[in-house]
Amino acid sequence: MEEILEKLFEAIEFGKADKNSPYPPNLKGLDGSKEHTLSALEAGVTPQRILEEALIPAMGKVGKKFSENKIFVPQMLMAAKAMSASMLQLKPFFASGELKTKGTFVIGTVKGDLHDIGKNLVSMIIEGGGWTIIDLGVDVSSERFIDAIKKNPGAIVGLSALLTTTMNSMGEIVANIKSELPETKILIGGAPVNMDFCVSIGADHYAPDPQRAVEYLNKMAG
Ligand code: B12
What we know:
binds cobalamin; 222 residues; five-stranded parallel sheet; 9 helices; alpha/beta; single chain; 9% strand; 5 strands
């Protein structure tokens, strides 16, 4: 891998978003993922290579370290932030169609639930995995999910719930989506849910963390 991409990989893995970011302390004053991305683009590295050779594998490594309890939420959030800073520089290429995404992922925290840290992490990592994200936010009703799927035919849907009370709401949303748009694939996640619950409400898949969510989506994309 070229040095420039190696530096970008490292900035993302260790959560260095830009030069002014004080985190992590050992990289203080050095360029972050934003500057490395701009340098790579200036040096003529294609957005596709930046995504495939630096961003995606770096977030893959972060997701794996998180699954193995080698890093925790704060480091993962910083890495996600660094990835976002880089993605922001690549956004114009997504928009221009120069970079092909693998598909669209509509995500939201279900009605009655305001927890969004996990959802945001999942969104950012899936975005880094090469998907277009439509984030509906928190407290999202069936109607809003259905509306977003209709506007983005073929999108895969992700539902997040953190409360035992809102697990019911998740079940209702799955039933409503499936009754109106039965072909829709629904992925669920959040601390209180599991594969048994997923099967019981008729969702298509449960992923315990963003890494496993990306693996499922990539399988669905073929
Ligand atoms: C932070 C927090 C809050 C914050 C939320 C801030 C925010 N912007 O999100 C605030 C203070 C607002 C809050 C409020 C409440 N909270 Co709260 N909260 C938490 C806390 C401490 C952390 C949650 C979190 O962010 N974890 C970190 C993220 C990264 O983990 P995660 O969300 O699980 O996400 C991971 C996976 O689950 C998965 N994932 C998540 N979503 C999805 C979606 C998909 C599609 C996929 C594939 C994967 C996936 O990937 C993520 C990364 O691995 C938890 C306790 C805990 N340790 O979980 C309690 C907790 C969830 N809260 C709880 C409660 C009771 C409440 C309140 C009812 C408290 C009150 N009386 O007001 C309110 C409810 C408000 C509401 N209507 O939603 C209880 C829930 C109990 C239960 N089983 O129902 C918990 C478990 C605390 C406890 N032990 O009692 N809370």
